[in-house]
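Below is a filled-in request sheet from our internal design queue. Each sheet records the structural input a requester submitted and the sequence that came back. We keep these sheets so that new team members can see what a complete request looks like end to end.

REQUESTER: design group, bay 2
PRIORITY: normal
MODE: inverse folding
CHAIN LENGTH: 273
BACKBONE (tokenized):
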């Protein structure tokens, strides 16, 4: 059963109706404590930080042990500035002491196969895009958990896909590689808070996908109130959560260029069939 610290974290995550039955453990408390960080101090990272994060990343499960991902550390301030401009001018891309770009990568497999005079056909199928993207995401999330264990903050940068071709060119990516997202890492300059999530009853199904529409509507209404209180406490004047979901998904305008990634992926010889 939850102890006081875990209960507090669960309340921050879910509000008063928290998952009271959750078990507690230091690693679980650590996971519950996650929050994205978008403002970084210039404090340098301890020696060995990058190697530690990559070791954690490489320890994640990987589909068929293909290890179909790579990561690029970008240090050059000019390159950081260009990438920040491509990703909706997010200042933390230039500010964070460490900026990593996680790649789905089948080019290494092709280089291995080429030594055996073999042309790989599977990487151009959509499933391989999923395999490489899932591998990269699992690796990156392990790095996030490791960074947070070292007292660091992180934020993913999906906006790196807004102009995918420009990022492919900037990073000189060969065919069969694409950038899934970026990740800023560093010491937080300001405190950020634990952002509430949907109630478990909305997210967790049992046996099959069953929805009680009235209950779902009521629980999402409760979550709207929790999310609104969170935004107010952060001094943000954001629309309600449902409105954000609709705005983000209703048409291409909120994709900010990502509606064109299919062509870039195809040019990279990915997702062709
Ligand atoms: C794949 C992915 C891409 C993201 N891209 C961005 C981004 O470009 N900029 C940003 O500020 N946050 C980005 N985020 C962070 C989310 O906004 C954040 O995780 C979400 O609002 C929940 O907040 P929390 O991480 O503080 O709990 C991204 C998160 C994920 C998982």
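RETURNED SEQUENCE:
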């Amino acid at each position: 059963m939850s102890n006081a610290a875990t209960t507090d974290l669960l309340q921050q995550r879910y509000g008063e109706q928290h998952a009271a039955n959750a078990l507690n453990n230091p690693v679980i408390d650590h996971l519950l404590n996650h929050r994205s960080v978008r403002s970084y101090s210039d404090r340098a990272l301890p020696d060995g930080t990058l190697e530690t994060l990559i070791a954690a990343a490489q320890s994640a499960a990987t589909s068929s042990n293909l290890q179909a991902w790579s990561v690029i550390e970008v240090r050059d301030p000019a390159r950081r500035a260009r990438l920040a401009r491509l990703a909706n001018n997010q200042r933390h891309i230039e500010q964070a002491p460490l900026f990593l770009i996680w790649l789905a990568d089948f080019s290494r497999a092709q280089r291995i196969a080429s030594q055996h005079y073999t042309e790989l056909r599977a990487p151009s199928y959509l499933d391989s895009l999923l395999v490489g993207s899932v591998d990269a995401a699992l690796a990156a999330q392990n790095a996030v958990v490791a960074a947070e264990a070292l007292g660091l903050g992180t934020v993913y940068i999906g906006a790196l896909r807004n102009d995918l071709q420009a990022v492919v060119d900037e990073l000189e990516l060969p065919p069969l590689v694409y950038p899934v997202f970026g990740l800023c890492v560093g010491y937080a300059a300001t405190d950020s808070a634990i952002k509430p999530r949907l109630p478990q009853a909305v997210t967790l199904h049992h046996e099959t996908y069953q929805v009680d529409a009235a209950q779902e509507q009521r629980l999402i209404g409760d979550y709207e109130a929790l999310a609104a209180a969170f935004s107010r406490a952060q001094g943000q004047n954001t629309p309600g959560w449902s409105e954000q979901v609709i705005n983000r998904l209703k048409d291409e305008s909120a994709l900010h260029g990502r509606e064109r990634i299919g062509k870039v992926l195809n040019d990279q010889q990915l997702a062709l069939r």
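SHEET NOTES:
- The mean pLDDT is 97.
- The two ends are 49 Å apart (CA to CA).
FILED BY: M.R.
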